């Protein structure tokens, strides 16, 4: 309880009307309790001032920001408190549809248009709700407000339904500046590889230079579908392809070699 109280006090102090933090560029929130994270974010939102030059905000590395944290994040982003924010890292595990609606709304605004790097981690929900939450995130990716986004890291998508709706956002055509995609702990399997092949084309991601798909659950058939897609459609101008910890059969390796 004491930790939660002081987290809120510190958060509010950052945006207090009389605070002199005009040079603050980075905030790393490494609290290991969800209540402390939510309290810190609520405190930031409560202050009357803003963090005009804040460029990097990392919160919830070890645990989720939960619903209350997502709602506070939504409020201070849309309220213009962090107009220069370029890097955002958040753990969204278990925030539910209500929390995801708030987070997605925070990204679907001109106040989020400065973002250059976004890292999110999903998980902690049942199969019935998981895809619906990721779909809300994909809608934000398709909103047109993230056209300047250069790097996107997504983790914790264990089911194929989540992967498929993520691909809808990636393939929206609105992420024209995206240079790097990192996918970790994602269950692509065969179907996901096919969906990915329809997204990773120059028409939809013209600036993509790096695909990091280690631990992404791509099966041999999934990789074959990806390689096959690149043989029939023009791939993005990739310079870096990381398939570490992916099992490559002879046939799949040959298919990829043909493209390289």
From TrEMBL:
One of its GO terms (cellular component) is nucleus. GO terms for molecular function: GTPase activator activity; small GTPase binding. SUPFAM superfamilies: RNI-like (SSF52047). Transmembrane segments: none annotated. The keyword Repeat applies. It comes from the Eukaryota. Pfam families: LRR_6. The keyword Repeat applies. Keywords: GTPase activation, Leucine-rich repeat, Repeat. One of its GO terms (biological process) is nucleocytoplasmic transport. This is Uncharacterized protein.
